[in-house]
């Protein structure tokens, strides 16, 4: 934070202010140029003859490109927040450490993915991006107060002041950058009205707009740092407004917990997202409690009604975390851990710390005395350190959720806790990276013939959406056969997994089936009419295989005039017809005219 005098005025010399501003603008410019280069490398200079984008180095090397773009996107904001606030040696050490950590996180994320997953820049899985940003923000605001006070653990008011001030500055800086971009586009549109297109063309160029926006963000950080007293005023208003929302959230959570004994837990578990919801509610309570508590100094204590709400809310965090633990343990006990459940378990670990610390802070004064909610301060600092460590472990090989999940799921299969026909082979093939692919390869050599066969079949799959989902119960389709009295095609009525079009035929009247030889090869295809389409199945060596769907053109009044394919099949009004325009062969690839059939009767 920029030093100020007793009246909140900036006490930096003009020379120091200029040096700080110049350093921040330089960081913004370097970030913009680096990001522009990386984006250009990923987009390619020109398309290849087959229309595919030809990437340039380093976008041709995912293990290098991913860490580079993560460092280029996240390290400069850390430097911007540290310039003028951290001592030079501390800033250099923290900058190098943060850069190495980001590079390692990026490399680890790509290294755990399968080759088929790393196909599009930035090659990084989405969960890494918000978690890495959170770890950097928390880590920076653990280091900054400690550096300011020259000790390992700073006073809690300093943590509060730096973190919440930075949060407001970040929000304002992002808003300034967005407004700047919108104004540029508005100006380009105005010039376009009089035939001057150059500005609009410039705004489409990566080398121009990315550095410009990066410099604008750096400028916003500097401008919001000039008068920290004004930023504190904005923060005070924001905290005041948010703190009163604590009353609303406390009443809602209290009512929810009070109603549970009467409604039971079955409805909660049936949602499939109970753990995430209650953790989100606990997180909201924790944030709102801190908006009311603020720095804990006597001069900043909220009104009595808010102090009471803080105590109640602090106690309510514990049952919410308890419900999350209960729900997650049930899911893991039934289906085993998945990467999402392991991440949820990590969040619960942090939640337990908050629940214990906040609950103790709310209740201990009744029998021990002491300051109001004082344990909250130590809890926040400890939980912040724990959060950073948990994030680092989750996104490195230390506790890679995919690796842990694969090991557990395969162990359940080998122990007989999951039947071979109910095991989620698709998860190993498509959703668990290299660890899953390696485990699937080992299962192909299993002594259990059923496991080995299913593993080999899944290993041969190239499309996750066409692969059967064995975790859901099989569905035996129900058909109405046309012509009436005839038998359904042999083998078409068989248990199928969710994802097969036949799985939608669950009761009489849902689907009507008939056989027509569409291609004249002497082997009739099975046509299954549903409410909106006609699915075509062809008999192959592997049984009946879906080849796609015919959908009638919707014209005029739209769905109101659309024919029900089932009724058309019952009336005998479904037949093969020649297309008005033939398919084309473009090189070795077939192409079909995508505007057929027409609605004007020409087809």
Which key terms come to mind for this protein?
603 residues; mainly alpha; 4 domains; 5-stranded mixed β-sheet; 7 strands; 59% helix; globular; disordered N terminus
Give an account of the 3D structure.
- The model is unreliable at 1-15 (pLDDT under 50).
- The protein is globular and about 85 Å long.
- The chain contains 19 helices and seven strands.
- It has a five-stranded mixed β-sheet. A two-stranded antiparallel ribbon has the order 6-7.
- It has 603 residues and is mostly helical.
- The chain folds into four domains: 14-226, no CATH class; 232-394, no CATH class; 401-460, no CATH class; 480-591, no CATH class.
């Amino acid at each position: 934070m920029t030093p100020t005098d007793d009246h909140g005025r900036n006490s930096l010399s003009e020379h120091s202010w200029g040096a700080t501003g110049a350093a921040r603008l330089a960081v913004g410019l370097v970030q913009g140029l680096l990001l522009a280069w990386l984006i250009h490398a990923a987009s390619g200079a020109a398309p290849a003859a087959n229309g595919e984008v030809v990437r340039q180095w380093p976008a041709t090397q995912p293990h290098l490109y991913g860490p580079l773009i993560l460092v280029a996107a996240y390290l400069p904001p850390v430097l911007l927040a540290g310039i003028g606030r951290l001592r030079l040696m501390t800033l250099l050490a923290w900058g190098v450490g943060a850069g190495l950590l980001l590079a390692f996180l990026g490399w680890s994320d790509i290294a755990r993915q399968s080759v088929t997953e790393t196909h599009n820049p930035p090659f990084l899985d989405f969960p890494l991006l918000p978690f890495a940003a959170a770890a950097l923000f928390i880590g920076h605001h653990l280091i900054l107060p400690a550096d300011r006070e020259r000790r390992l653990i700073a006073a809690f008011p300093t943590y509060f002041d730096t973190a919440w001030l930075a949060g407001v500055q970040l929000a304002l800086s992002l808003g300034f950058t967005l407004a700047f971009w919108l104004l540029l586009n508005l100006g380009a549109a105005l010039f376009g009205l009089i035939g001057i297109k150059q500005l609009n063309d410039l705004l489409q160029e990566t080398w121009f707009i990315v550095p410009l926006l990066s410099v604008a963000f750096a400028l916003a950080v500097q401008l919001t740092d000039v008068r920290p007293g004004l930023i504190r005023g904005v923060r005070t208003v924001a905290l005041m407004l948010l703190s009163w929302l604590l009353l609303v959230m406390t009443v809602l959570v209290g009512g929810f917990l009070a109603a549970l004994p009467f409604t039971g837990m079955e409805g909660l578990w049936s949602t499939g997202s109970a753990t995430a919801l209650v953790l989100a509610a606990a997180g909201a309570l924790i944030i709102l409690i801190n908006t009311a508590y603020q720095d804990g100094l006597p001069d900043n204590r909220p009104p009595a009604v808010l102090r009471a709400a803080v105590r109640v809310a602090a106690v309510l965090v514990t049952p919410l975390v308890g419900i999350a633990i209960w729900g997650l343990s049930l899911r893991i006990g039934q289906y085993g851990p998945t990467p999402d459940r392991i991440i949820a378990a990590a969040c619960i670990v942090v939640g337990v710390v908050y629940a214990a610390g906040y609950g103790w802070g709310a209740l201990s004064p009744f029998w021990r005395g002491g300051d109001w909610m004082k344990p909250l301060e130590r809890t926040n600092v400890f939980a912040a350190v724990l959060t950073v460590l948990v994030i680092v472990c989750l996104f490195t090989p230390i506790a890679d959720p995919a690796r842990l999940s694969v090991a557990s799921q395969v162990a359940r299969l080998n122990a007989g806790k999951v039947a071979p026909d109910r095991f989620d082979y698709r998860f190993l093939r498509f959703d668990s990276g290299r660890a899953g692919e390696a485990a699937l390869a080992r299962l192909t050599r299993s002594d259990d013939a059923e496991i080995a066969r299913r593993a080999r079949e899944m290993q041969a799959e190239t499309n996750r959406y066409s692969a059967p989902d064995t975790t859901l119960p099989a569905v035996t389709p129900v058909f109405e056969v046309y012509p009436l009295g005839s038998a359904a095609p042999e083998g078409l009525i068989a248990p199928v997994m969710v994802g097969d079009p036949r799985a939608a035929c669950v009761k009489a009247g849902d689907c009507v089936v008939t056989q027509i030889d569409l291609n004249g090869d002497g082997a009739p295809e099975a046509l299954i009419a549903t409410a909106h389409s006609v699915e075509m199945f062809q008999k192959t060596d592997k049984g009946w295989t879906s080849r796609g769907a015919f959908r009638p053109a919707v014209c005029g009044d739209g769905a109101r005039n659309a024919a029900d394919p089932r009724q058309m099949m019952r009336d005998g009004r479904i037949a093969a017809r020649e297309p008005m325009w033939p398919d084309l062969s473009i090189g070795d690839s077939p192409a079909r005219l995508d505007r057929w059939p027409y609605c004007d009767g020409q087809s």
